[in-house]
Each structure stands twice: as C-alpha cells, then as structure tokens.
Design brief:
Strand order of the largest sheet: 1-4
Largest sheet: 2 strands, antiparallel
Shape: rod-shaped
Strand content: under 5%
Number of helices: 7
Structural class: mainly alpha
Oligomer: single chain
Radius of gyration: 62 Å
Order of helices and strands: HHEEEHHEHHH
C-alpha cells in the first residue's frame, strides 16, 4: 500500500516535518484498519484484490486533504515564526539605536555642561583678578594721596636753613617792565604776590609760564603756603638733603634750575617758585602737569 505524500515537505522546518510525518503515520494506521474491516477481519481479501472498498478510498482522499492542510498550516506557522523573529530583531535593533542616541545626547549634554562650567569658572577667575588688580590700584592711589597729604601737613617750620642765613620774611621785590624801564610793579608780600611775581620773572626769562592755579595747588599740597617749610622725614631728608620752601625743592635742584635775577636763598618764596617751575618745565613739561610729589 502506498502512503499519501505530503507536498512541499522539503521546505518545512524540523518541527513541522515531525508533525507532518505523524499525520502520515496516522493515515497509514487508519488505512490498515479500514482494510481489515473491508475483508471482514480476515487476512484474505474477497471480491476486491486491492483490499479497499469505495469507503476506504474516500477516507484516503480525506487523509490527503488533512495532510495538505497540515502542511499548509506548518508553512504558515513557519512564516509566522520567521516574522516574529524578524520583528523581535527589528525591535532589538531599534532599542539599541534608541539607547545609543540617548547615550550620545547625554554625552553631548554633559560635555556642554562641563564647557559651560569651565567658561563660568574662567570668567569668575578673570573677574576676581580684575577686582584684585583694581583694589591694588585703588590702595596704591590712596597711599599716594595719604603721603601727599602728610607732606602737606607734617612740615616743620624753621627760621633758618642749616648753614644758611634765612630771613624771617621774604623781602618785597620789584620787577622792571621791559617795555617801560622806568615803571616798577610792587607785589604784595603774601602768597598771591609771590606767585604773580614768580610768573613775571619766568616770562622775562622766556621760560614757559604755568597757570596761577597750577602753581597755587602744588604750593598748598607741598607746604600749605609756608615759605619756611622743611621736610625732615622723607627720603630726601634721610639722604641728608631735605626738601625746603613753598614748593619743597632740594638744594641741588634749586641750584641747578635757579632763575637769574632771583635770590639764591632757597627759602625766598619767589626764587623757590621760579626754580621749581623751571625744573617742572624741563622734567614734566610744566608745573600744570604736576599732581603729586615730584
């Protein structure tokens, strides 16, 4: 007896092949039983040499149909399994891609955050350095202002310079006007008169004349207007040549920049102003450019 064949069984998976084989075996058993029934339970066939009746033929056809359905179902199951595996693989790939994208985004955000923190720290350091520099500059400026103030207030008035003959008060001076030699200008014997007379002397010797205010503010800062002031504590004094007079000039400077026609007495207010202005012109471009100890 020939068993029914299962179409396309070569393309089935191992599991589906076993299932199809089981179905074929079951069909063979049914055929065997049917054959016995057809012969009345005897091994000898009667009437039909094949041992099959018409009913048994129908059963064989039914089994063929069942086997075909089983094969088709196996193919469907195999396709569904492959699709499921493909879907799972795609899902895994998508999950991996999503995780990689999230990691990349997190790394980028972390780098950006670190860069921002570094920039903020750098800016804070720069601000702190600038503030420190500014504070140091302000402290230095305050120190200079304090030193200038101390020089203006802490003067020791003396009536005579060491080894010098000093008059108690500056003598009145007269300056001849070049255009009118016969005329003479008498200046008051006070700070205003000393400044105006010194400016006139400078002009007569073609020395650039500073402004009245430029001379006045430096006198007030240096000696508070005392022509006999002497500084016995600054670096010049420590070196043995203290600053003297209205504009606190040291002897070497006074002698080097002395203006002809004025007294050689460093305490003489007009001579002191004239020599100091001549020095300031050569060194600073003029007394108006002097704003601190010079």
């Amino acid at each position: 007896m020939q068993l029914p064949t299962i179409p396309k069984i070569g393309r089935l998976s191992k599991k589906h092949k076993i299932t199809a084989a089981g179905a074929a075996a079951a069909a063979a058993v049914v055929l065997a039983v049917t054959g016995l029934q057809a012969t009345g339970g005897s091994a000898e066939a009667k009437g039909d040499p094949t041992g099959f009746s018409a009913d048994s033929g129908q059963q064989v056809k039914s089994l063929d149909a069942q086997a075909s359905l089983a094969s088709q179902q196996a193919i469907k199951d195999d396709a569904a399994a492959k699709k499921k595996a493909a879907d799972e693989s795609a899902a895994q790939q998508k999950a991996a891609a999503d995780a990689a994208a999230k990691k990349k985004a997190a790394d980028t955000a972390a780098k950006k955050k670190a860069a921002h923190a570094a920039a903020v720290a750098k800016q804070r350091a720069a601000n702190a350095a600038a503030a420190k520099k500014k504070a140091a500059a302000q402290a230095a400026e305050r120190a200079r202002a304090k030193e200038a103030a101390n020089r203006s207030t802490q003067r020791t008035a003396v009536k005579a310079a060491p080894k010098k003959t000093v008059v108690a008060a500056a003598p009145k001076k007269t300056v001849a006007i070049a255009a009118t030699p016969a005329a003479a200008v008498v200046y008051p014997d006070n700070l205003d008169g000393w400044i105006r007379e010194a400016r006139s002397v400078l002009a007569a010797h073609d020395i650039p004349v500073p402004t009245y205010n430029g001379i006045y503010r430096n006198i007030i800062r240096e000696s508070s207007g005392n022509p006999n002031a002497i500084n016995l504590w600054d670096i010049n004094a420590q070196n043995g040549i203290p600053s003297k007079g209205l504009l606190q000039t040291i002897d070497p400077t006074f002698n080097a920049y002395h203006v002809s026609g004025t007294s050689w007495n460093i305490y003489d207010p007009v001579a002191n102003i004239a020599a100091a202005c001549n020095y300031a012109w050569h060194v600073y471009g003029g007394m108006d450019n002097v704003n601190s100890a010079y």
